[in-house]
Design brief:
heterodimer, A: about 325 residues, alpha+beta, 6 helices, B: about 260 residues, nine-stranded antiparallel sheet, two-stranded antiparallel ribbon, 4 helices, about 15% helix
């Protein structure tokens, strides 16, 4: 059983604030009508719309027609894919009540990512240092606007599905990522080509889209808390339309260099912006606006000072809440 | 009278002449360009020119839209500016020279920033066009940029919005796709030479299939803060014909960070 300390440090607040500020700022279009020009009117959330069965509609080339806007629900937050690590800032957002973690990993004995020992050590090193990153590798990829890649790309951001003959394409709102899925059954690109989004080939099995993802560059991380895969990773994604408003996503992730066994990633997507038929995907120039990711790296002296302050704060907090332990 | 002289006076001859004239007229009424060896232009189910596919330019305009001699590492190239002069206001002509001096770091492309419109169409990287009746989706390999050219009759949003790639609203004019692009920031350049614009930039693009494998791409550039009058660029975009061609990726700003991950 692993224990993660529940330290609340100012630099962790800063790093979490920076990491969460990016989606907040980029969602300026969610503001109310009296906001400045260029910002679209507020729309009601469709997150928990009542489900009804889906009557299949097909594109001209015979694909189930899934076009439109979707987002992961629950989603947005890419702090921890496993839902196992406590997140102190939720205490700030939730008026002192910690939000439960979102458990997306199944198929392993403890519903955690089954790292080989070397990989578990690397993951622990990353997680232990996200509060006070003293090296560039301790800064999460999302903070640098690096592409999210498979597994993460559909958790962080809402997206638009576009279908044309032989293709289904997902375009994200955050960071303008492109996930292009040819449906033509051609072979993958050559094995020496490594791609940030991986290389995808898909086909339809009735109401399920099956996508084979290979050739991953594996420079993206799976989440902010240091979960990762390596260049030998192979994702097999299954997207199933379960009702009018919902797509269920399950991906089996195999990586014999990083994991001891395959595991499954689970995400649920729901329709978004249904009440606004004029809603459009707009530009998100993440890298162009990024100015501070290098400044997240602090000196060892500053890290020591932060740690001392955290000790004091934790001692105070332990008197009331104790140290958080995962189930 | 010889037989051929007799023929010249007959009704048969007049009919033959009329037929030849009619055939010639109908042949030239078709756009000659669309009936070349490269084949007729592909069309969608609703009869519009179909731009679906993979495209890339051969011009060196990304370095200098006015044309240049070769430099180390940069090929010589003929320009894409129609009339070859860019009508800068006097202050702007000086600014361009300043940009030129600082281009090694001042060119936003050196930071792998999205290169703006129209430059994004003539970088040395391929892009993919997907087409539906409501929009064209342009997916660029260069820093995963994308544009949607909206054909649904919608207007530009209430502006001004400072976008890197502007806002694109399109309509058909015969077989030409006309795209009105507004709402730019002032951060991009037209090339590596420092040719630039303000946030008042307005671009009208015209995409016309010369044949199945070539797009004639013309863009009218208008910016009352920078230029004394509108000016145009014109270039050819070529279809990728390789079997199995697809977009890869070019994450320019990620190269220096790759060593730290995953």
């Amino acid at each position: 059983m692993k224990v993660y300390s529940n330290r609340l440090t100012s630099s962790r607040l800063l790093s979490i604030a920076v990491l969460t500020l990016i989606p907040v700022v980029a969602s300026a279009q969610d503001q109310s009508p009296d906001q400045p020009l260029g910002v679209r009117p507020k729309h009601a959330a469709t997150r928990n719309a009542p489900s009804k069965p889906w009557t299949p509609v097909y594109t001209p080339d015979g694909q189930p027609d899934w076009q439109g806007f979707w987002r992961a629900n629950p989603g947005g937050d890419t702090y921890d894919l496993t839902g196992s690590k406590p997140r102190p800032d939720y205490n700030l957002q939730g008026n002192g009540v910690p939000k439960p973690g979102i458990h997306r990993v199944t198929g392993t004995p403890d519903d955690l990512i089954p790292y080989q020992p070397w990989a578990a050590a690397h993951h622990k090193d990353l997680f232990d240092n996200i509060d006070d990153p003293t090296k560039p590798e301790y800064v999460d990829t999302q903070a640098r606007c690096l592409l999210e890649g498979p597994g993460r790309v559909f958790i962080h951001s809402g997206f638009e599905i576009i279908q044309t003959p032989g293709y289904i394409v997902f375009l994200t709102e955050q960071n303008d990522e492109q996930v292009i899925v040819p449906l033509d059954g051609t072979p993958h690109v050559g094995k020496d080509i490594k791609l940030w989004q991986g290389d995808r080939r898909g086909h339809w099995e009735g109401n399920t889209l099956v996508v084979d993802v290979t050739n991953v560059k594996a420079k993206s991380r799976l989440d902010m808390s240091g979960d990762f895969y390596g260049p030998a990773a192979h994702f097999v994604e299954r997207y199933t339309r379960v009702d009018d408003n919902t797509i269920k996503y399950e991906a089996t992730v195999t990586d014999p260099e990083t994991y001891t066994q395959p595991w499954t990633l689970n995400i649920r997507f729901q329709r978004a912006h249904l009440e606004d038929p004029s809603y459009e995907l707009w530009e998100d120039a993440c890298h162009e606006g990024e100015r501070s990711s290098d400044r997240l790296v602090i000196s060892p002296e500053a890290a020591k000072a932060n740690a001392a302050a955290a000790q004091a704060a934790a001692a105070k907090a332990n008197a009331t809440t104790g140290v958080a332990v995962i189930q | 009278m010889h037989r051929h002289e007799f023929f010249l006076k007959t009704r048969q001859f007049h009919i033959v002449i009329a037929l030849i004239a009619a055939m010639t007229a109908s042949f030239s009424a078709l756009s000659a360009a669309q009936n070349t060896a490269a084949g007729k232009i592909p069309r969608t189910a609703d009869g519009k020119p179909d731009f679906t596919g993979f495209w890339q330019v051969l011009t060196s305009a990304n370095w200098n839209i006015q044309g240049q001699s070769a430099e180390k590492g940069i090929p010589a190239g003929q320009g894409i500016v129609v009339g070859s002069e860019i009508p800068y206001q006097p202050w702007a002509a000086k600014q361009q020279q300043e940009n030129y001096k600082n281009r090694a770091t001042a060119d936003p492309e050196t930071h792998s920033y999205v290169p703006g419109v129209p430059r994004i169409n003539y970088t040395p990287f391929p892009f993919q066009i997907l087409q539906t009746p409501k929009k064209l989706v342009l997916l660029y390999e260069y820093v995963h940029a994308s544009r949607q050219l909206r054909l649904d009759g919608s207007d530009h949003p209430k502006g001004h919005i400072d976008w890197w790639l502007g806002d694109s609203r399109a309509h058909w004019n015969g077989d030409t796709l006309v795209v009105d692009v507004t709402d730019f920031n002032d951060q991009t350049w037209f090339d590596h030479e420092g040719n630039f614009h303000s946030d008042a930039l307005h671009v009208v693009e015209r995409y016309t299939l010369l044949d199945a494998d070539h797009i004639d791409y013309e863009a009218t550039i208008e910016d009352p803060k920078v230029f004394t009058q509108p000016w145009k660029i014109d270039l050819v975009i070529y279809r990728h014909k390789e079997k199995g061609f697809q977009l890869l990726d070019y994450e320019g700003y990620a190269f220096d960070y790759e060593q730290y991950y995953p």
